[in-house]
Design goal:
alpha/beta, 8 helices, binds NADPH dihydro-nicotinamide-adenine-dinucleotide phosphate
């Protein structure tokens, strides 16, 4: 059985990815930051699908937590075939880039960009050492290419993930490790819960998402399963939009 490490798997998109992977036969490391009960519930759901689950707390912004997360993942399953860099946070308060403060910037860069950059480094080195022809998927956002001037910090971290994908794809190809960027559109999760009415209007009335519905965590999970089950063996450094056509506009 193959094993996957999914960061931020306690809720939202990460939860959807974890459950889709479990249904596809992957054991899953369910990482979370603070919501232990939600992570445990995901682990139970993974087990109900016939796979094994390991729940590991770890703040991706912290080097010692990243190292502990990787050690615990390999201890749980012996090998990790798939890393999914999913965990991420949005700014607590939106602020125009002419006024935005450094505190939010540092927090977002730590969790959304520095975390995946160095977690990927740790896992990639373990894959190389073990001779694992693994897969690495990073969840970015349409904010990687849309200039939202009231949340520049978030956009910069997501644009950085596009380069992370290209860099690791270029470096790891010789080791048989393929690297992908999955770019979700507007997905129904806690992150978008606070702006539900605005997004309802944009999606359903104005059609910013040409397939006029909210995306679901399951939509993103299915894309990750396609990568994980090697349906794209000759593609690496590739972006896969899971956005109902948002990028067409
Ligand atoms: P949610 O807020 O629903 O879930 C966030 C997840 O990340 C939780 O599992 C949370 O754990 C975890 N997390 C938060 N901070 C940390 C941290 N420091 N270390 C480890 N884990 C952490 O977000 P979504 O599911 O909506 O988003 C998931 C990813 O998808 C993010 O990278 C986001 O930027 C991206 N995305 C989301 C879109 C959307 O429309 N929802 C669109 C495009 C991209 P805990 O439960 O313990 O707090």
């Amino acid at each position: 059985m193959s094993a996957a490490l999914v960061t931020g798997a306690s809720r939202g998109i990460g939860r959807g990815i974890a459950l889709c992977l479990a249904s596809a036969g992957f054991d899953v490391v369910v990482n979370y930051a603070s919501n232990a009960a939600a992570a445990q519930e995901v682990a139970t759901q993974v087990q109900k699908r016939g796979a094994r689950a390991a729940v590991v707390r770890g703040d991706l912004a912290l080097a010692e937590d990243r190292a502990r997360l990787v050690d615990a993942s390999y201890e749980a399953f012996g090998d990790i075939d798939l890393l999914v860099n999913n965990a991420g946070v949005a700014p607590a308060v939106r602020a125009d880039i002419l006024e935005a403060g450094e505190e939010s910037f540092d927090r977002l860069v730590g969790i959304n960009l520095k975390g995946p950059y160095f977690l990927t480094q740790l896992v990639a080195n373990r894959m190389i050492a073990a001779g694992t022809r693994g897969r690495i998927v990073t969840i970015s956002s349409m904010s990687a290419y849309t200039a939202s001037v009231n949340r520049g910090d978030y956009c910069i971290t997501k644009a950085g993930l596009s380069m992370l994908t290209k860099l690791y794809a270029a470096r790891l190809a010789e080791h048989g490790i393929n690297v992908y960027e999955v770019r979700p559109g507007i997905i129904e999760t806690d992150m978008t819960g606070g702006v539900r009415e605005k997004y309802d209007r944009l999606i359903l009335d104005e059609g910013v998402t040409p397939i006029r519905r909210w995306g679901t965590p399951d939509d993103v999970g299915r894309a990750v399963v396609a990568i994980a089950t090697d349906l794209l063996p000759f593609s690496t450094g590739q972006v896969i939009d899971v956005d109902g056509g948002f990028h067409l506009r």
